[in-house]
Amino acid sequence: MSMSSPKQELVKLVMVHLLSAVKLKSSVSAEVFAEAVHQLSTSLEQQQLLSATGPIGKRYSHPIMDTDEADLDTFFVMSFESRVQLEAAVAHMTATEDLSKDQHRQLWNQMDSYRFTCWED
Hints:
- With 121 residues, the chain is α+β, with helices and mostly antiparallel strands.
- Helices cover 35% and strands 25% of the residues.
- It is built from three helices and five strands.
- The protein has helices spanning 30-46, 83-95, 99-110; strands at residues 16-24, 52-53, 57-58, 74-80, 111-120.
- Strands 1, 2, 3, 4 and 5 form a five-stranded antiparallel sheet that branches.
């Protein structure tokens, strides 16, 4: 009698990610910006409009591997369970008078320049 294990199907969870690459205004400290990102992320997570936010990182300008010529130097990733969750978060922040909208506006006011990129995995 041989024992074989049943095949297990792997369920691939498709996530949507948003990379935010920004340059802060000279009057904004990294700590103030990090707190604003944390407040917005917490608010969105509590409303189930965001799955996770990664750490905020600073640019490492490698002479070969860093080919982007923009002067953006602060980066973080927000992850959403699906396109539906992403669109719900966007609609929420642009169409309501909720605390999240105020927190989002506060972030915008701290940025001098920015680039956003979305992708699915």
